[in-house]
Amino acid sequence: MTSPTHPILSESEVISRLKSRRGQPGYLAMFSSWLGGVITDPALMQIPLDDHLVHRGHGVFDTCTLSGGNLYRLGIHIDRLLTSAALARIEHSWTKEDLIQMVIDTASQARVKEGAVRYWLTAGPGGFSPSPQECEEACFYCVIIDPVPLGSIQSDPMVSGIPEATVLDTPMKPPLLATIKSNNYLLNVLTHMEAVDRGGTFGVLVDEEGYVAESCVLNVVFVTKEGVLRTPPFDGILLGTTVRRIMNLAETTLVEEDLLSSVDQSPILASEVRGDAISEMFLCGGDTHLYPVTSWDQVPVGDGQVGSVAKRLIGLLEEEAFGTKTGESSDFIKVNYPD
After folding, report:
1. Interatomic CA distance for residues 285 and 231, integer angstroms
2. Helix, strand, coil percentages in the chain from 3-state DSSP, rounded to 5
3. Catalytic status, residue 173
4. Which of 186, 193, 97, 105 is nearest to 141 (CA)?
5. Alpha carbon of 7 to those of 3, 10, 48, 276, 289: distances in Å?
6. Which of 90, 176, 300, 324 could share a disulfide with 304, CB 3.0–4.6 Å?
7. Which helix (H) or strand (E) holds 158?
């Protein structure tokens, strides 16, 4: 019988090691309903190992953007979080207003005007069985971090565009998991990894009948040669908040400006949007992220450059979130910061 090779750590040693391991900047504030408050030391931003979010994936999440001291489109994201929680059968007593207040409190203590916001609603801690009956209480966690781009850090993919690839070997999520924004994201990760292996970026999923579905964490949009903005219906894919905003902007501003003729949401065969059939293609998500696709499976999209529709939509999204606040007033929840 061998002797133990790893020491038992004291409380002070644990804290010291956590601080040495969590020294990177960018983690600004975290709220934990389990602890009942906001944490500003990154070393202490922890989630219980027996929270069913961790070992069973029994949790849902969503995001929003902190811009100019306002939480941009938090309300619509909380609506989706509550829908996801109901579908995941996570029982809790919080109202939409309760959840919004917890996010506001976290942003306030982060003491920054710009940031990325993520939050989770979980079955809670209590044990390691698959049954949430052992969980004493649902938990809500929120974190404010420095904005992090989804694409390459070497260049801005929203400016230069991205190559994309069809994912062939990673299966799509079943409809229930696709419509719940849950922590069951292994297939999303594998979709991205296969896309990179094939020379793409995020990946484009096509179902067994040949219809375009979605990307790993983004919705897919096409612009036809006739100027129609087309995107797949939300049956069996995530109900994207950004793509819904893009369709609204397209129906109003871009059609009025003659950049588009119309907007269509209907099933799209991948074979119908290949080659000369489309002038533009892009992926969108995260409120302000729109990634023009300049090539798909090594074939140029349109002229292989970022198109005018993508450029205009990027400008409108960024202007709304970071500029003149042209959206609905309900899209902006002001954060009151401590003196």
Report:
1. 13
2. 35, 25, 40
3. no
4. 105
5. 11, 9, 22, 65, 46
6. 300
7. helix 157-160
**CA 192, CA 167: separation in Å to the nearest integer?**
9
Residue range 99-108, pLDDT digits in tens: 999 999 999 9
* Chain centroid offset of residue 114 CA: 17
Cα separation of 210 and 126, whole Å?
44
Backbone phi and psi for residue 126, each to the nearest 5 degrees, phi listed first: 160, -10
What SS3 state is found at 258? coil
How far is CA 58 from its chain centroid? 18
- Return d(Cα 30, Cα 142) in angstroms, integer: 5
Give the residue among 215, 220, 227 at the shortest CA–CA distance from 308: 227
Tell me the per-residue pLDDT of 258-270, one tens digit each, with 9 for 90 and over. Answer: 999 999 999 999 9
Q: Distance (Å, rounded) from C-alpha 322 to C-alpha 316?
A: 10
Q: Of 51, 15, 45, whose CA–CA distance to 31 is shortest?
A: 45
Closest CA relative to residue 31, chosen from 139, 122, 184: 139
Q: Which domains does the chain have, with CATH numbers?
A: 12-145 (3.30.470.10), 157-323 (3.20.10.10)
Q: What is the CA radius of gyration of the chain?
A: 22
Q: Are 80 and 116 a contacting pair, CB within 8 Å? A: no
What percentage of the chain has pLDDT greater than the value 90?
87
The contacts of residue 54 (CB under 8 Å, 6+ apart) are 47, 48
Tell me which residue has tokens 């309903």: 33
Q: How far apart are CA 265 and CA 37, in angstroms?
A: 43
**What tokens appear for 130 in the block?**
């698959």
Show the tokens assigned to 308: 């005018």
Q: What is the pTM of this model?
A: 0.92
